[in-house]
């Protein structure tokens, strides 16, 4: 057989997965058929010097997942693509890793923010890179590296670093590079002048490549582990860019919520919006596939639920997800007014006792805090829905666009309570699904690179529409309390 399948390695901040897919010809056109191969926890590790990703474990799981995929369909997998959360990176010198990559929730970022702003004002930064202020943007993290920057000869973002370990390639995939704060928002090229003015040597910034670039085969040592020298394709390696690519929309008038650990809420535009109003509202202009702009706002997402669950009981990943379903059922039955808090408050960023911090948030404001797990979960869900609805309205106003429908993709698309609450609060239909939008975007960019489906973004989205069922929630159609 001609190898026709593609494998996606999709690394989220709480779990990773390996999924394979193949294009089949359905009645109305090509469809994507997928198969889950492996799912593994992504548990960060705190050491004396801070919070780190266990990147070696993620790499090991990637290799194991690819080997399993290859064994399941010998000779049929043509290529692999990797996506992950944004902003984090490794520094290298002569191919050797300089330290263990930090987690973006590590507390060190604050000093980096002060160091950068001492040299470049927030307004100038935004005018150049178009990014919302997030204290962990790569540019702020780099400002904490000190001498290490002088020693390094390469900076590779997480998916690019894994790609390097797999093949030897040293590139920066553009959608993810757009989250560093070092890419010019207009040209999507490195802003070397900005980098150098912040003491970041231009030589460490690799060559930029677009999603769909074929990076070559796995190196012989890796191929020996996986079973075959599969080809690596640079996909939209920022997970959110892959997810937005896979929104099953046919029109232009949609907003989206890519809802996983974060809720990324915004619009797809042809060009960045770099106005003072957009900066004040903390809207970002990240790079999407096919040169699109992802004009969005980071809302604290399912992190609030997953971290609360982790606090309540330290179970395995599988236990946590069934426990979540139970808690959401209980939350849906909570009666009486639901208290709303500001999910974006920075107090909720670090790992730890999220329920305790929610309680404190209310009592510090003289309000009654929700009591018991079900009431807290209900408050989280309604507060997320309120923040999502608000971000949709703000994004539409800032971009001067009309929004007629909100697409929710990712894990949050399975949360019925959340989707109905969003429809109610936004007064718009919510189309939920696919849950694996990120992996689908990853696989379909590979399918495009291999010439299996049409080259346009619309071709990719049409495949998603044919392949994944969606659920529509209409505003006011069901009382939220009865949703699940
Ligand atoms: C979501 C995400 C998001 C970034 C954050 C660091 O996984 O990539 O788009 O802002 O992680």
TrEMBL record:
Keyword vocabulary terms for this entry: ATP-binding, Disulfide bond, Kinase, Nucleotide-binding, Rhamnose metabolism, Transferase
Residue stretches making up the Carbohydrate kinase FGGY N-terminal domain: 8-244
GO terms (BP aspect): glycerol metabolic process; rhamnose catabolic process
Origin superkingdom: Bacteria
Gene Ontology CC: one annotated term: cytosol
Classification via InterPro entries: ATPase_NBD, FGGY_C, FGGY_N, Rhamnulokinase
Annotated Carbohydrate kinase FGGY C-terminal domain residues: 255-449
GO MF annotation terms: ATP binding; glycerol kinase activity; rhamnulokinase activity
Entry similarity comment: Belongs to the FGGY kinase family.
Descriptive protein name: Rhamnulokinase
């Amino acid at each position: 057989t001609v190898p026709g399948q593609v494998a996606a390695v999709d690394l989220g901040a709480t779990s990773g997965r390996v999924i394979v897919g193949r294009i089949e010809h359905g009645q109305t056109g090509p469809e994507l058929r997928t198969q889950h191969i492996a799912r593994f926890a992504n548990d960060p590790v705190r050491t004396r010097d801070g919070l780190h990703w266990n990147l070696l474990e993620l790499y090991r799981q990637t290799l194991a997942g690819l080997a399993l995929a290859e064994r399941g369909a010998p000779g049929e997998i043509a290529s692999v693509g990797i996506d992950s959360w944004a902003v984090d990176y490794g520094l290298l010198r002569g191919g050797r890793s300089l330290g263990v990559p930090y987690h973006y929730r590590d507390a060190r970022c604050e000093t980096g923010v002060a160091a950068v702003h001492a040299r470049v004002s927030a307004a100038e930064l935004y005018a150049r890179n178009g990014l919302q202020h997030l204290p962990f943007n790569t540019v702020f993290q780099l400002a904490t590296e000190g001498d290490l920057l002088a020693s390094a000869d390469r900076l590779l973002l997480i998916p690019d670093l894994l790609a390097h370990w797999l093949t030897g390639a040293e590139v920066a995939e553009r959608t993810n590079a757009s989250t560093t704060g070092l890419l010019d928002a207009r040209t999507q090229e490195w802003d070397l002048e900005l980098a150098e003015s912040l003491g970041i040597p231009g030589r460490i910034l690799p060559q930029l490549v677009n999603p769909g670039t074929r990076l070559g085969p796995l190196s012989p040592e890796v191929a020996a582990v996986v079973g075959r020298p599969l080809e690596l394709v640079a996909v939209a390696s920022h997970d959110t860019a892959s997810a937005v690519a896979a929104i099953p929309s046919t029109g232009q008038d949609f907003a989206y919520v890519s809802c996983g650990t974060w809720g990324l809420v915004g619009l797809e535009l042809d060009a960045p919006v770099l106005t003072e109003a957009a900066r004040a509202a903390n809207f970002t202009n990240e790079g999407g596939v096919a040169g699109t702009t992802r004009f969005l706002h980071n809302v604290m997402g399912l992190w609030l639920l997953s971290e609360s669950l982790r606090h309540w009981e330290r179970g395995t990943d599988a236990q946590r997800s069934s426990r979540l379903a139970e808690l959401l059922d209980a939350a849906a039955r909570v009666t009486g007014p639901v208290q709303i808090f500001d999910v974006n408050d920075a107090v909720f960023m670090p790992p730890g006792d999220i329920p305790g911090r929610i309680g404190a948030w209310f009592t510090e404001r003289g309000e009654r805090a929700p009591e018991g797990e079900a009431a807290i979960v209900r408050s989280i869900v309604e507060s997320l829905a309120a923040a999502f609805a608000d971000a949709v309205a703000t994004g539409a106003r800032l971009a001067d666009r009309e929004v007629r429908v909100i697409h929710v993709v990712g894990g949050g698309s399975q949360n019925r309570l959340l989707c109905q609450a969003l429809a109610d609060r936004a007064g718009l239909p919510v189309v939920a699904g696919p849950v694996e939008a990120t992996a689908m975007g990853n696989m379909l960019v590979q399918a495009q690179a291999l010439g299996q489906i049409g080259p346009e973004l619309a071709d990719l989205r049409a495949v998603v529409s044919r392949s994944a069922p969606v659920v529509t929630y209409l505003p006011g159609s069901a009382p939220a309390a009865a949703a699940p």
